[in-house]
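Structure first, sequence second, as always.
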């Protein structure tokens, strides 16, 4: 009986530690990600072409290719996605950027940090590139 209790206690401790570690991993960076400032992009100086941008911040790290044609964002492709992608959110964010031709968009509720991570990659791709 003592062996059984020790095993149950050990399993319980392992589960608690795993849950705590998982919670830490999932929430680490949420506050700083929500406060990210994203600069507006100026497309007037960009030549036609594909520009690479990336943002590195834990599970929100991503890499994108932004295609510019006639000084407009024509297409955004994912090279390396965030750890837990939501394709429906990604499509909405990219569609909004292409529609507005800027990174200054209304964010999707529930996808603030992920959205800002994508916008930072777009900013990285397009700002100060010549």
């Amino acid at each position: 009986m003592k062996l059984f209790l020790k095993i149950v206690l050990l399993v319980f401790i392992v589960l608690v530690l795993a849950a705590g570690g998982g919670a830490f991993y999932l929430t680490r960076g949420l506050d700083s990600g929500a406060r990210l400032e994203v600069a507006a992009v100026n497309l007037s100086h960009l030549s036609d072409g594909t520009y690479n941008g990336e943002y590195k911040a834990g599970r929100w790290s991503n890499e994108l290719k932004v295609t510019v044609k006639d000084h407009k964002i024509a297409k955004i492709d994912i090279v390396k996605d965030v750890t837990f992608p939501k394709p429906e959110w990604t499509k909405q964010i990219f569609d909004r950027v292409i529609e507005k031709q800027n990174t200054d968009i209304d964010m999707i509720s529930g996808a603030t940090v992920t959205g800002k991570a994508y916008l930072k990659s777009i900013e990285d791709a397009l700002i100060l590139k010549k």
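Margin note: The chain has one domain: 36-126.
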